[in-house]
Design a protein that fits this description.
Helix content: 40-55%
Largest sheet: 6 strands, parallel
Order of helices and strands: EHEHEHHEHEHE
CATH class: Alpha Beta
Length: 160
Amino acid sequence: MARLGVTGHIHLTADTVDLIRRELSTRLQRYGGDVVGVSCLAPGADTMFAAAVLAAGGRLEVVLPARRYRDHAVPAEALDVFDELLARAETVQVMSYEDPAADAYRAANEAVLGSIEHLFAVWDGGGGGTGSTAETVKSARDRGIPVDIVWPAGSRREVK
């Protein structure tokens, strides 16, 4: 059973969401459903990955960055998907932080990395700060965890 984690961007264009969903589905087919996906369930890449893992017949484990993550970091339009995926998770680990913040995201990402053997990064290669996709990719590579970059041609981040 392969243990796969995810890190990635939250704000993606609608066209990019479609590209990423298809690409994740294609890449997960290699495992034939024999996979555990580990995700923080952030909107965007994390939830797309979690849904793709479940659709492929895999199992889902969740690491939440903070106790009040849902209340403070999940936008109203993403709550239904978040709640559905959380309910389908086999395990849920909640970091010791009360509220989501950069250090909580870093801790959650490190917990994900500590439990996987391969990381999918929905990432355009850009930099970032504490708890970012860039930092998580660097940390995975420093640990010797293989990283699959998932950024199909034509993908773009939404400008916020």
